[in-house]
Amino acid sequence: MPMFQPELETLPRPKLTELQNQRLREQVAYVYERVPFYRQALDEKGLKPSDIRGVEDLHKLPFTKKKDLRDTYPFGMFAVPRQELARIHASSGTTGKPTVVGYTKGDLEIFAEVVARSLAAAGGRPGMMLHNAYGYGLFTGGLGLHGGAEKLGMVVVPISGGMTDRQIMLIQDFKPEMIACTPSYAQTLAEEFKKRGITPEEISLQYAILGAEPWTEAIRQSVDEGLGVRATNIYGLSEIIGPGVSNEDVNEREGLSYIWEDHFYPEVVDPETGDPLPDGEVGVLVFTTLTKKAMPILRYWTGDLTYITREPGPSGRTHARMAQIRGRTDDMLIVRGVNVYPTQIEAVLKEIPEVVPHYQIVLTREGPMDELELKLEVAEPFFREIGQKVLSDEVIEADQRLAHLREKVARKIKDNVGLSVKVSLINPGTAPRSEGGKLKRVADLRKLR
Ligand code: DLL
Question: What is the CATH architecture assignment of 1-329?
Answer without folding.
Answer: 3-Layer(aba) Sandwich (3.40)
